[in-house]
Design a protein that fits this description.
Blueprint: H1 10-15, H2 19-28, H3 40-47, H4 50-58, H5 62-73, H6 80-88, H7 96-118, E1 122-123, E2 130-131, H8 133-139, H9 155-158, H10 164-173, H11 182-194, H12 196-204, H13 208-217, E3 223-225, H14 232-239, E4 244-245, E5 250-252, H15 255-261, E6 279-282, H16 285-309, H17 325-335, H18 339-351, E7 355-357, E8 365-367, H19 369-375, H20 379-392, H21 422-435, E9 440-442, H22 444-454, H23 469-484, E10 487-488, E11 491-492, H24 494-501, H25 504-511, E12 523-525, E13 529-532, H26 538-547, E14 549-552, E15 557-560, H27 563-571, H28 576-586, H29 593-605, E16 610-612, E17 616-619, H30 623-631, E18 640-644, E19 647-650, H31 654-663, E20 669-670, H32 705-723, H33 730-734, H34 745-758, E21 762-767, E22 773-784, E23 787-792, E24 797-802, E25 806-811
Parallel strand pairs: 16-20
Antiparallel strand pairs: 1-2, 3-5, 4-5, 6-9, 7-8, 10-11, 12-13, 13-15, 14-15, 16-17, 17-19, 18-19, 21-22, 21-25, 22-23, 23-24
Length: 818
């Protein structure tokens, strides 16, 4: 589909592309596919809309963006040599260092221009390059929107509306011949500013203070404020047109003069090459893998500890959604971490689908049924699930504690935490880490510099963040990947490389040998503690977590036995004999006598008091115990009264009565209506089945190859229908361009029947049941019963059309080409 003449419009330039190039455009700018354009003209129109162009500019790297910015201040159209001169300068002030920079720019410029062409931001041959109008409007300088290059308007733009008399005064002061034609006057002034020799001579006569004024404006912003009586240096510049008035108090340095002072460069510092990510430290790869594996195991244990603490029901949800500050602090205390880190673990469990709201009237949080399935997996598979969920999650835990655009606090598990850029930034950070040698920890500043070069316009978010959002997410990524065990000692681990490159199965296989084998024993000590020298087998860990409280974690976990923890085990249905047998079986040291006494003492008192519903009652065979309770001043809030020598009644619920008596030092047990002791099983509170939160996409999803191929075929076919040449008829000659053909029913039927006999293609206008009109190129196969069956070139399939919906037909000028 090569063209013999240069394209006159973007649509013609796109029409000249091959299918692979069109697919590349749709792959780079997927928003153009929603919905699939009808033809090339519609594709070009959509590619030039403001929203689509802004999105495309945001995905450019810094040098491609600098190339587009240079074209925005270049003449339209501009040659490739003009563009290159704006990027490299005119060479008048070149030194060795400038020569090297120019060489790099010349090497990188073709690639940057190819990127702009591929994304339909630039079109035309090298001698007539055109930046699409919307991009030029976005990047060109104006008082309201200064150019990123720091350049101001041209002389022609700045002098528009200036009186001919004032132009003559400027020409005279600049030593130029007078002319009564304003256009010639403007051209003469612009020619002076672009002539290096004459401009140099003019500036040689300038006062030193005037040159200082130019120095302040040359790299932007080019606008300055002046008083009604300007200083002599400013007046000198204004009289010679080096400063042109924008308003009564504002002047601007014209673009041609600024480019002379810049030696022709549009940018002070062109950046043709991405900054390198520098190593901050180099470590032994095996030690990195071991450190990451240890942290991965700790991450799994932390999430499990968090959700185990919520087994009987987690905290309530705020009316606006999320956790309250008090509940976040409580969670941080349980996990023995800071509040931001606690928010990270909460959001990670939520993203993995292990934690959700229960949907009750008084809505709260609890583990999901998926949590039970997750706990049955090997440690390496549990970690892979957490890491995969983290990589794709758009919820950003680092925002917790900040404020949204309306000044409202952002809470953990609450709304407004989604940032669509987060997954892409995480993947990009880890990809850059993977590009370093194994065991290399990067310097964060150089990593951020690389990210800013890759996406210089992606610093803010739609939620109103005004700082560099991508940089903040990148720093959070480095911290969170260390917490999660993606990195170890700052470097990417081998298992994480496998997760990025080969998938979850390979990552789990590499991690498995590094995870310590679970132990089946603990070491009991005389101070009522037990030491687990490593991870414990699940049945042992589950039982021990009920019987004792975790006192400290690390390489070894320390559990402490207390009256409350022993009572918790008895509430769960264990007897004193069961607990003695359990400890004797799983301890490598003898069971200390103080621990045996503690179990027996709590078991002896456990269930001595019985709580039931009256609203609630207390039952005890020992009348003296009940008398003691009534005499205790602390029982006043329980509102007790004696019903019988062995029973007390209360006006509060059984759960509150149980808690109140336990705070007084008793060990009551709840009982059923039949008088049986109620056993409280751990881990019974679960939400209904929940799906993990769906990441918020950053624009349209990227199309796969099948969709791209189908879309290109549809656009080509639609373009064929829209641009096909048909034979002229009297009706067609009178119809406006682009209108549907109009023929009578008899003419339509006759033309279609003739096409069936000759096997030729025809052009039809068709209106569907919804009233939408379209143009189609069809090859009729059969006509019967008021319907025509034909191969539709537009849809690339066989279709049947009612003849009464065909507005008219026309023969193609060359049906063989159709």
């Amino acid at each position: 589909m090569g063209m013999t003449t240069p394209p006159r419009t973007l649509a013609e330039a796109l029409r000249a592309r091959d299918d692979e190039s069109l697919a590349g455009l749709l792959r780079a700018r997927p928003d153009l596919l929603s919905p699939v354009p009808n033809d090339i003209t519609q594709l070009a129109t959509r590619a030039g809309t403001r929203a689509s162009v802004v999105r495309a500019l945001e995905h450019l790297d810094r040098f491609a963006l600098q190339t587009a910015e240079a074209l925005a201040v270049a003449p339209d159209p501009a040659s490739y040599d003009t563009l290159l001169a704006l990027l490299t300068g005119d060479g008048q002030d070149d030194g060795a260092q400038r020569d090297d920079a120019g060489s790099m720019i010349r090497d990188a410029a073709p690639g940057a221009l190819a990127t702009l062409r591929e994304q339909a931001l630039v079109w035309g041959e090298d001698d007539r390059l055109r930046l699409v109008r919307t991009a030029r409007e976005l990047l060109a300088p104006s008082p309201q929107h200064p150019s990123p290059t720091g350049l101001g308007p041209t002389v022609a733009e700045a002098t528009a509306g200036m009186s001919p008399g004032r132009l003559q005064e400027i020409l005279a002061a600049a030593g130029l011949p007078a002319t009564h034609d304003p256009v010639s006057a403007v051209s003469a002034l612009a020619a002076l500013f672009t002539d290096r020799t004459r401009m140099g001579e003019l500036l040689d006569t300038a006062p030193t203070e005037a040159l200082a004024v130019l120095d302040r404006l040359v790299w932007g912003p080019p606008y300055g404020e002046v008083t009604p009586n300007p200083t002599p240096p400013v007046k000198w510049l204004r009289d010679r047109g080096l400063l042109l008035p924008v308003s009564t108090r504002t002047v601007v340095l014209p673009r041609e003069a600024a480019l002379h002072l810049r030696a022709g460069r549009a940018h002070r510092v062109p950046e043709p090459l991405p900054p390198a990510v520098v190593a901050a430290a180099t470590r032994d790869p095996q030690s990195v893998d071991n450190a990451a594996a240890g942290q991965a195991h700790l991450a799994v244990s932390t999430v499990e500890e968090l959700l185990t603490s919520w087994n009987s029901g987690g905290p309530a949800m705020l009316r606006s959604g999320g956790l309250s500050v008090r509940e976040l602090k409580r969670t941080a205390s349980v996990l023995d971490v800071s509040e931001p880190i606690a928010a990270f673990w909460l959001e990670l469990a939520y993203a993995a689908g292990l934690l959700a709201s229960d949907g009750e009237v008084d809505e709260g949080y609890a583990p999901t049924p998926a949590y039970d399935d997750w706990t049955e997996l090997p440690v390496q598979d549990r970690w892979v699930r957490l890491a995969t969920a983290w990589l794709s999650a758009t919820r950003t835990a680092g925002l917790v504690g900040g404020q949204d655009a309306k000044g409202r606090a952002l809470s953990a598990l609450g709304p407004e935490l989604d940032r669509s850029a987060a997954p892409e930034v995480r993947h990009r950070v880890l990809t850059l880490l993977a590009s370093l040698a194994p065991g290399t920890a990067p310097d964060p500043e150089t990593l951020l510099a690389r990210l800013r070069w890759e996406r210089p316009l992606r610093g803010t978010s739609a939620a109103g963040d005004t700082t560099d959002l991508r940089s903040r997410i990148a720093l959070w990524t480095l911290n969170e990947s260390e917490l999660l065990g993606i990195t170890g000692r700052g470097a990417l681990s081998s298992q994480s490389r496998a997760l990025l490159e080969s998938g979850p199965a390979e990552a789990a296989a590499l991690l498995a040998p590094l995870i310590p084998e679970p132990l089946d024993h603990v070491l009991l000590q005389a101070d009522l503690t037990a030491v687990a020298p490593g991870p414990l087998e699940r049945p042992l860990a589950d039982t021990l977590s009920v019987l004792a409280d975790i006192e400290s974690k690390g390489g070894a976990t320390v559990y402490r036995f207390t009256p409350g923890s022993v009572r918790r085990a008895l509430d769960a249905g264990q007897s004193a004999a069961d607990l003695h047998a359990f400890l004797a079986t799983h301890s490598r040291t003898p069971v200390p006598q103080p621990l045996s006494y503690l179990i027996d003492d709590v078991a002896r008192r456990h269930g001595h008091l019985r709580i039931g519903a009256a609203s609630a009652y207390v039952r005890c065979d020992d009348e003296a115990v009940l008398g003691e309770i009534l005499a205790d001043k602390r029982s006043a809030t329980l509102r007790l009264r004696r019903l019988a020598p062995t029973a007390l009644a209360a006006q509060i619920d059984p759960a509150s009565l149980l808690e109140g008596l336990r705070e007084m030092g008793y060990a009551p047990a709840a009982e059923s209506a039949e008088g049986d002791v109620l056993i409280t099983r751990a881990g019974t509170r679960r939400t209904p089945p929940r799906t993990p939160p769906v990441p918020v996409p950053e624009g349209p999803p990227h199309p796969d190859g099948t969709l791209l191929g189908a879309a290109v075929r549809a656009i080509r076919a639609g373009d064929t229908a829209a641009t096909v040449v048909r034979k002229d008829t009297s009706q067609d000659a009178a119809a406006p361009a682009g209108s549907l053909p109009r023929t009578t029913s008899a003419e339509t039927l006759a033309t279609v029947q003739a096409a069936v006999m000759t096997g030729s293609a025809i052009w039809i206008g068709y209106v569907n049941a919804d009233g939408a009109a379209s143009q189609r190129v069809i090859a009729p196969v059969r006509v019967e019963g008021g319907f025509v069956t034909a191969y539709d070139h537009t849809a690339d399939e066989i279709r049947t059309y009612p003849l009464h919906r065909v507005t008219g037909v026309a023969e193609l000028a060359d049906s063989e080409d159709a």
